[in-house]
Amino acid sequence: MRLKVASPPAWIDAVLADFDAFLRDHAACERKASASALAFVAHYPDRPELVAECIALAREELEHFQRVAEWIARRGLVLAPDRKDPYMQTLARGFRRGSDAYFLDRLLTAAVAEARGCERFGLIAAGIPEEEAELKRFYRELARAEVRHQELYIDLARRYFDEVEVEARLDEILGEEAKIIAELPIRARLY
Fold first, then answer.
1. Which CATH architecture has domain 9-79+96-183?
2. What three-state secondary structure class fits 23?
3. In the chain, count of helices (H) and strands (E)?
4. Measured distance CA(134)–CA(137) in Å, rounded
5. Who contacts 61 (Cβ-Cβ below 8 Å, separation ≥6)?
6. Domain boundaries, the chain
7. Per residue in 110-152, pLDDT tens?
8. Residue 163 carries which DSSP code?
9. In Å, how far are 14, 59, 133, 140, 146 from 126, measured between CA atoms?
10. How confident is the model over 24-48, as pLDDT tens digits?
11. Average of per-residue pLDDT across 156-176
């Protein structure tokens, strides 16, 4: 998937300048990604392919949460309290009404969020100094995982909807996501 706008260079500077704050936010995002995959299972139990795929995804996201929590503990920090994410909240405001439209929008928005995560984890991996090879490798692994996750959500959308409809709606959501990225303040958070 091609995002319509790249993250600004100031974003990676902010993350690397306050990596502890970023890690705490990142942990929350991984936990929420796991919960989101399970929400698909709860809301669409009549779709066996989706159920199986999203259970596996939820487990992987939970493993990522655990690994980020371990990095947080290594640094002598604790997990941060939960906060609403303006990026995800703004994307969700674009969900259309009607069960099919809403379902498609949820799948595609999840794919777009995974694509943005992929881009940003790649930037982090590139920006982490070589002497922190283990952390650098971790973020490379996460970037690769995000590719699989975005593909999963796109594949699910194509399984349940016409490809022309999927591509048209995906393009619209990517356009909205670009506006959100341009308007969000630069901070040491994933989104």
1. Up-down Bundle (1.20)
2. helix
3. 7, 0
4. 5
5. 30, 31, 33, 34, 37, 149
6. 9-79+96-183
7. 999 999 999 999 999 999 999 999 999 999 999 999 999 999 9
8. H
9. 14, 27, 11, 8, 16
10. 999 999 999 999 999 999 999 999 9
11. 98
